[in-house]
Design brief:
Helix content is about 40%, strand content about 20%. It has one domain: tRNA wybutosine-synthesizing-like (SSo0622-like fold). The chain has eight helices and ten strands. By secondary structure, the protein is of the alpha+beta class.
Length: about 260
Amino acid sequence: MDHTAEFRRWKAQCLSKADLSRKGSVDENVVELVQLLNGREPYFTTSSCAGRIILLDGDINGFEVQKQNRCWLLVTHKPCVKDDVMAALKKANGDAILKFEPFVLHVQCRQLQDAQILHSVAIDSGFRNSGITVGKRGKTMLAIRSTHGLEVPLSHKGKLMVTEEYIDFLLKIANQKMEENKKRIERLYNCLQHALEKENITNARPKRKSKTKNKSSYTRKKERNPEEAHSKCFTEENVKECENDDALGISVTIFPED
């Protein structure tokens, strides 16, 4: 079976499966983005989260807060208020942790060039922790994610270790991050639409034969560079964020496969 046919089989199998996430459905703020990608032949999404504020209870294992085997006291994909957190904290028996987890999206791509297009769009949209994984069977996965998370311990062995004033302060920060998260998702959707439309136009044009027979490998790679095939989708909000970043472009980070 050729790679394209196998990719189509993977896509059909993935999209036909039931949603096994805790929520059981795609988050409202990313439905259109997920539908946009799944409607394109070279892509399909395997998991997503629009961003959330959660309160976990349990024992801290070393320096990491593991969500497995912990009690979820509170989870919301919308701005959170102090009263909800204080009510949830009354149920805590261990070490309660308040977390904000930003948007994350995993996309399987038909080939590396398709992943590079999405990677470039993700970086330009503010998701600077995005990267590509290439598996042994040729599976090319793109993880779109950012670094503006938050993780703060609130109680120890059921005893509250901070003041209500401090919890109110933390929630203001978490809610601000939630709002920024929403703006980045909207920016990603708009930039992705622009990039995919431009890709369709580029593919529809007849390819011209090169007059030069022997070109260096560097020149050929440069012509295939998705950065030149897709103009960067900057807005006034993210130009300042990007202007001091040395990692602009489509320099792809390859993460080892788990």
